[in-house]
C-alpha cells in the first residue's frame, strides 16, 4: 500500500498516528508509519526539548511530527488577568462536590501546585513551536485549525510541513489558502475536538474541496484495515489515527494509567459522549461517572477555553491518580468499541496492513 502521502512524508505506509506518548509515536515511525507526538501535556519548553531529544534517538532515523494546540484567539493572554480568578465560585464548588461524591482522593501535598493547563495556552504553544524547530521534525500539526501565518512561514523556512484538522470543506479551503500543506478531515466519530459531520460524508467533501491542491488524510472512526481501505476509496491519501493507539503496550510506558486502559477495553462504540467539559470546546470523551455528572440537573455550563482547562486541570490529575476505571477522564473516539486488547504498536500496524491487502483482494474479485 503506497500513496503520494508516502513520498510527501518519507514513509513506507500512509498511516499517521497521533498520540500523547513519545513511546507510541516513535514505535509508529519505526513500523513504517508516521508518528505525531501531541505536545499539549508539556508545561515547559525544556521538558518538550528533552522528549524530542529522546524521539530523535529512538526513531531509527525515520520521520516524525508534532501536534501543537494553538487556539486562534486567546483574549486573556498578554494582560495582567489571573485566569484562576475568572472561574466562577459555583463551578469550583460543583467540581469539589462531584469529586467528593465520586470518591476521588485529594492529590499528595507535593503535587497540589503543579499546573497541567499551561500547554493549552497560546503562548506556551508558541514555545513548543520554537522547540520543535530545533529538531528534525517533518510536520507540525494544529488540532484547532490553521496555525498563525507567521508560524506556518517559520515552519516552511525550516522545510517543515504544516497540517491542520478540518471539520468542514470551507475550513479546509481557508487552511490551504493560509499555506497549510496537509489537511486532516476529522469526522464526528473521532476522539477529542470534533465537528458535526461524519467521516463518511466529510472526507469526500474535503477531498473535492482541496484534494487537487494538498493531500487529505481521513480521521475519525478508523481502527481496522477495512476502514483504512475505505478512507482511500473516499479519496484520502492516507489515514490519521489517534484513539486506536491508546490501547497499545507502549502507551502504558508514558501514562502508566492502567485504569484508563481497563476502561477503554471494556467500552463499546456507544460509550462516548461529545461535551465541552474537557477543554471548553466540543470534544468526544469516554463516558464515565465523571462525564455523566456534568449532564445532571444543576450542573453548570462548561466555561470557554482556556477557563474550562483551568477549572478541571487539578480534577483530572486527581482522577488519574485515583486509579478508578469508572471515573477516568479521557478523550477517545467511537472506535473504542474495537479496542479490546493490549497489543504492541508493530503488531497493530502489521494487522492494519494485512487487512488492507485482504480488503483490496476481496474488492478486486467483485469486478
TrEMBL record:
InterPro entries for the chain:
Aldolase_TIM, NMO
User: What GO MF annotations does this protein's record show?
Assistant: dioxygenase activity; nitronate monooxygenase activity
Keywords of this entry: Dioxygenase, Flavoprotein, FMN, Oxidoreductase
Does Oxidoreductase count among this protein's keywords?
yes
Record's CDD domains? NPD_like
Question: What protein name is recorded for this chain?
Answer: NAD(P)H-dependent flavin oxidoreductase YrpB (Nitropropane dioxygenase family)
What phylogenetic lineage does the species belong to?
A: Bacteria, Bacillati, Actinomycetota, Actinomycetes, Actinomycetes incertae sedis
Amino acid at each position: 500500500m503506497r500513496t503520494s502521502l508516502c513520498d510527501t512524508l518519507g514513509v513506507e505506509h500512509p498511516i499517521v498516528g497521533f498520540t500523547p506518548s513519545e513511546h507510541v509515536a516513535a514505535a509508529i515511525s519505526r513500523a513504517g508509519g508516521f508518528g505525531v507526538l501531541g505536545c499539549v501535556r508539556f508545561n515547559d519548553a525544556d521538558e518538550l526539548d528533552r522528549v524530542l531529544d529522546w524521539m530523535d534517538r529512538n526513531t531509527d532515523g525515520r520521520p516524525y511530527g508534532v501536534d501543537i494546540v494553538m487556539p486562534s484567539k486567546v483574549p486573556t493572554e498578554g494582560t495582567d488577568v489571573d485566569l484562576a480568578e475568572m472561574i466562577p465560585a459555583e463551578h469550583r464548588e460543583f467540581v469539589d462536590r462531584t469529586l467528593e461524591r465520586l470518591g476521588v482522593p485529594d492529590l499528595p501535598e507535593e503535587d497540589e501546585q503543579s499546573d497541567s493547563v499551561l500547554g493549552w495556552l497560546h503562548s506556551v504553544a508558541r514555545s513548543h513551536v520554537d522547540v520543535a524547530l530545533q529538531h528534525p521534525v517533518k510536520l507540525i500539526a494544529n488540532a484547532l485549525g490553521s496555525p498563525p501565518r507567521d508560524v506556518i512561514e517559520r515552519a516552511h523556512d525550516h522545510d517543515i510541513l504544516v497540517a491542520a484538522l478540518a471539520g468542514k470543506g470551507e475550513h479546509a479551503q481557508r487552511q490551504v489558502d493560509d499555506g497549510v500543506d496537509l489537511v486532516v478531515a476529522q469526522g464526528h466519530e473521532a476522539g477529542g475536538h470534533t465537528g458535526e459531520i461524519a467521516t463518511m460524508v466529510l472526507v469526500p467533501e474535503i477531498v473535492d474541496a482541496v484534494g487537487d491542491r494538498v493531500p487529505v488524510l481521513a480521521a475519525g472512526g478508523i481502527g481496522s484495515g477495512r476502514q483504512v481501505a475505505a478512507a482511500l476509496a473516499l479519496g484520502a491519501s492516507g489515514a490519521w489515527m489517534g484513539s486506536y493507539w491508546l490501547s497499545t503496550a507502549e502507551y502504558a510506558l508514558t501514562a502508566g494509567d492502567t485504569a484508563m486502559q481497563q476502561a477503554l477495553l471494556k467500552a463499546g462504540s456507544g460509550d462516548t459522549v461529545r461535551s465541552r467539559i474537557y477543554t471548553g470546546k466540543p470534544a468526544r470523551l469516554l463516558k464515565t461517572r465523571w462525564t455523566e455528572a456534568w449532564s445532571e440537573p444543576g450542573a453548570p455550563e462548561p466555561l470557554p477555553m482556556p477557563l474550562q482547562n483551568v477549572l478541571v486541570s487539578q480534577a483530572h490529575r486527581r482522577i488519574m491518580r485515583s486509579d478508578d476505571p469508572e471515573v477516568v477522564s479521557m478523550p477517545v473516539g467511537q472506535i473504542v468499541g474495537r479496542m479490546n486488547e493490549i497489543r504492541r504498536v508493530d503488531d497493530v500496524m502489521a494487522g492494519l496492513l494485512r487487512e488492507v491487502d485482504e480488503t483490496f483482494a476481496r474488492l478486486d474479485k467483485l469486478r
